[in-house]
Automatic annotation (TrEMBL), chains A, B:
Protein name: N5-carboxyaminoimidazole ribonucleotide synthase
InterPro entries: ATP-grasp, ATP-grasp_carboxylate-amine, ATP_grasp_subdomain_1, PreATP-grasp_dom_sf, PurK, PurK_C, PurT/PurK_preATP-grasp, Rudment_hybrid_motif
Family: Belongs to the PurK/PurT family.
Organism: Natronosporangium hydrolyticum
E.C. number(s) listed in UniProt: 6.3.4.18
Binding site for ATP: K107, K146, E179, E180, K181, L182, E187, N264, E265
């Protein structure tokens, strides 16, 4: 409890853009997010008032950080489960719990658990040898190889065209799993928040558009998705959240295939597939996560406009103009998109921000968001 | 320029809720607002990363604060004009300028200037003696007495029912002016932003509802206002901003009377009459102020919903529940209003936050906002 305000203190481990945007949401709720950053120049650290420095793998740093927090939560999956258990054993409130977060940290545990629950997933197998890989592929390449831990934004995911391409990864001894390479109609995602009380609030199902394994665009709601499938997907997410006892946000990434809807990945934190909600839903995912982990009643998830498009801004290799000038061009050209910059140093390919457009006609809204993202990424060529 | 991000640094003098909400907007723009607070527990100081302590009347503190800022701006009117001139003479960029801000600081200067411009205002007169007061009133009480400087939120404004009621105020020697007590149909307000380049972006005209001289509710757009009058009011505001060379936000508070629209007050900063814009307009007043003082192209001002209502939350004398519990009740009862808490210690009558509701039917939206504000102010009586 913050004695200055009589309101709770939420601590978030990790100082990236998710913590940065959660701090914005915390301000409206009368709070000030406590951030555990690894670098004083982290995106959240340079905007928050209550910043601690420390590694997410350092239990003593986590213990010091948690002191005085009403709840500790995460902007990434890098805190070891045993550390979370140690905090909980010491009486700290941590959401999601170690037992729940495991399924967002460990793809093998997640696949096994979802299989137990009878939830449709791609065909998969844990492997450690070339023989096992050959057996899984049965001559039918390409297949997908994923590291069990540490993957995100396309990292830790490899398309294997021939057995020898997996040799290096298998030689590391790091646990990996294989998945069939599916022909996707498209990728979808659904996000919900669940409170310790058990209240659940689900956002509309969205379409996520990927390029080179990285999400570049999110369309809310997923265009052309029939109402019944949308409801089934929402129910699936509720079932997963309830079975895994998730508290806070859960993002379920999905494949839409000829075999139906398959679960790809889980995340238990604010997620890129939900950035559209800042302006596009009545309650943003960041506010919702705070409400969930604090056991406040959850906010309304309704869309604020018929069509909402979020486009990520990945830094270009080179640009003719500095970021501030590109922002001028964007604002001049597209006065009605919303810009979110993450306060990061620019490095090619790095997500430096996103833009969100709202409107009534998806094609127009999508074009507007893409135009804004391009201007912010590349500037103009006049 | 912030060398970590390549983006500008805006410094805001004053650490209240306006700076607090401006910091939220700055985060999205990739910035971190620099705040000059008088107390480390000020609402903005407890959420911002870049906080300086100092009085707005201390020129040396202002000079230190301005170093490294790309632009200095204000969350109140308390910085003396000569200090602003001294900063500008030293090469600092300050918006609004001292010459413009004067008309928001000094009601007499404002009335004189608007009169010169032929803009309709209430009948008024500067007075310093009881004889002058008698002469102005001509036996027709009540009249309104206003201090020339320092008034806001109903402070510095007195309804004078009989000459002797003004004696105390006149005896202070502080400059005052008198105004006729008008029969108002209602109060309106219009807000715009103007950039150094001269671009202007105007928000829809809103109705402001007062109780005991304090704004309690803002209805956007002003219900039942005919299109032509709305445009005339917007044009009036543009004319004032251009004539006074305002940079940043300008709020024009208006009386709707049988004699037409009269200008009551001016403010040159984010203003309570524009809080609805955080969710209710495509570009919030806080983002717009930053864009204006930085000479970025301005954002779209369109309404995000047909009816938007902002209700202030003034702390109650006593409450059965602490703030955090009242927030629980509010969230449970009204899941689709947006809450903004200012991080202030509760003191009866103090504005501790506001709520905003959006929808299609004004009566329903207004009821929802009022219900939320009451729950946040008083809690439940179960």
């Amino acid at each position: 409890m913050d004695t200055r305000t009589g309101l709770p203190v939420v601590g978030m481990v990790g100082g990236g853009q998710l913590a940065r945007m959660t701090h914005q949401a915390a301000i409206a709720l009368g709070q000030s997010l406590r951030v555990l950053a690894t670098d004083p120049d982290d995106g959240a650290a340079i905007v928050a008032a209550d910043v601690h420095l420390g590694q997410p793998t350092d239990l003593e740093a986590l213990r010091r950080f948690a002191k005085g927090c009403d709840v500790v939560t995460f902007d990434h999956e890098h805190v070891p489960g045993d550390h979370i258990r140690a905090l909980a054993a010491a009486g700290e409130t941590v959401y999601p719990s170690a037992d729940a977060l495991l399924y967002a940290q460990d793809k093998l545990a997640m696949r096994r658990r979802l299989a137990e629950l009878g939830i449709a997933v791609p065909r998969w197998r844990a492997v450690s040898t070339a023989d096992e890989l050959d057996e899984f592929a049965a001559g039918d390449y390409p297949i997908i190889l994923k590291t069990v831990r540490g993957g995100y934004d396309g990292r830790g995911v490899f398309v294997i065209e021939a057995p020898e391409e997996a040799a290096g990864q298998l030689a590391t001894g790091e646990p990996v799993l294989l998945e069939e390479k599916l022909t996707l109609r498209r990728e979808l995602a659904v996000q919900l928040a669940r409170s310790p009380f058990g209240q659940v609030a689900v956002y509309p199902v969205v379409e996520t558009v990927q390029a080179d394994g990285v999400c570049v665009e999110v369309l809310a709601p997923a265009p052309g998705l029939d109402e019944q499938t949308a409801v089934e997907i929402q129910q699936l997410a509720i079932r997963i959240a309830t079975e895994l006892d998730v508290v806070g946000l859960l993002a379920v990434e999905l494949f839409e295939t000829d075999r139906g809807i398959l679960v790809n990945e889980l995340a238990m934190r604010p997620h890129n597939s939900g950035h559209w909600s800042i302006e596009g839903a009545r309650t943003s995912q960041f506010e919702q996560h705070l409400r969930a982990v604090l056991d406040y009643p959850l906010g309304a998830c309704e869309l604020a406009a018929p069509a909402v498009v979020m486009a990520n801004v990945l830094a270009a290799e080179t640009t003719a103009q500095p970021l501030d000038e590109r922002l001028h061009h964007l604002f001049a050209a597209v006065p009605d998109v919303k810009v979110h910059l993450y306060g990061k140093r620019t490095r090619p390919g790095r997500k430096i921000g996103h833009v969100t457009a709202l409107g009534t006609e998806l094609a127009e809204v999508r074009d507007r968001a893409a135009r804004a993202a391009t201007l912010l990424r590349e500037g103009t060529t006049h």
